[in-house]
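Full entry
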Amino acid sequence: MIRIVGNLSAEDDYTHELGPEENFNESVYFNFFDKAQNRGGFVRIGNRANEGYAEMTVIVWNPDGSAMFNYAKPSISDNHGWDAGGLKIDVVKPAETIRTIYAGEALFLADPRSMSDPGTAFRENPKQPLAIELTHEAVGPLYGHVGDPEDDNQFARSHSEQHMRVTGTIRMGEGDAISFSGHGLRDHSWGPRYWQATPSYRWITGNFGDDLGMIVRTNDQGEGGGLFHEGQELVRITSTKLKTTYEPGSNYHSNLHAELQLEDGRKRVLEGRVMGFIPLRNRRSGQNTHVGEGMTEYTLDGERIGYGLSEYLDQPRED
């Protein structure tokens, strides 16, 4: 039986009543990594029905660091589900099983760093067919909270997260479908959202098997917390000291080292190596928020190997 932690209910897996805020957003995100293939990616769709569109992102990294990528803002008029831009999310059993399906085209990026200039990248890289059919099955509790409607939080007032086992197929280009078997994390948030509403964060997610997963959250100084799921139990990380190595002359993270203090007194050490990287951005009112996404291999306590995604968000620096 899957535990639900916080003031959530299983029904919170579905979309919610559209709020009055112009920037009301209801988004779902699923990352997935197959360590046997060194292949992974994520899909995300955020409904902004009051603004008349959805934000849809899909990426699949290949073992050589190349990637299939697409981003679109398809028109929508309601918040009755997630189905736009070729991406569809089916809630098979709330709090337990979700299907993600993408059918469309995507850019083939030999070097995903070319997305630092999205206009040029979309003009100069070829488009190829991409089909994703994955089933995400819970291996840990559904956790999070439903926020107070009076809260003026403009980023993730209500949210849930859960570690998952992921199986299915991915078909890239004209080739045969590739069987996929791995793990990942899913995230669901609803309420008003501006990407510019948070100054910075480092969001580090990973899975080491059915029995163990993690989320580490810090600010740009590497200070924060997080949690581990150990089966159906959640163990809080009370203190994090994160150090990051960046590619020379850039804000593209390449390696990380984190010292983690757990609430039960244990100390754990996490090493991360980015295997595939893409720089993304969110533009609003002339402000470009940098979101660096890294497919990352982790080593926990010098022993256990896992995979996941490290996401670094920063706002433009003021000169």
Observations:
- The mean pLDDT is 94.
- The chain has one domain: 4-314.
- Residues 4-314 form one domain.
